[in-house]
Specification:
Number of domains: 1
Strand content: under 5%
Shape: rod-shaped
Number of helices: 2
Radius of gyration: 30 Å
Distance between the termini: 74 Å
Length: 81
């Protein structure tokens, strides 16, 4: 990420108005870069959380199916005995 100073002084400015315009443009560019970075980080986190939740749901479904199978087996064994 660039600093405002490094962005402003990339090109030579001749007037105060040009300097102010360069500072404002640089600040806006850096602000946009930071917003983009934050958006990407947030998106990545949300995707990872979604994947983790789907994985957990799959595990829980398997676990509950196993419990149901065990319960059914005990009922069958109790009936047979």
């Amino acid at each position: 990420m660039e600093t405002v100073k490094s962005e402003v002084y990339k090109e030579k400015v001749n007037t105060r108005d040009e300097l102010v315009a360069c500072i404002m443009d640089s600040a806006a560019l850096i602000k946009q870069e930071r917003q983009d970075y934050l958006r990407r980080a947030t998106s990545t986190f949300a995707k990872r959380a979604e994947i983790a939740l789907k994985s957990m749901v799959g595990f829980l479904n398997t676990y509950f199916e196993l419990l149901q199978f065990i319960n059914t087996s005990f009922v069958f064994i109790s009936y047979v005995l």
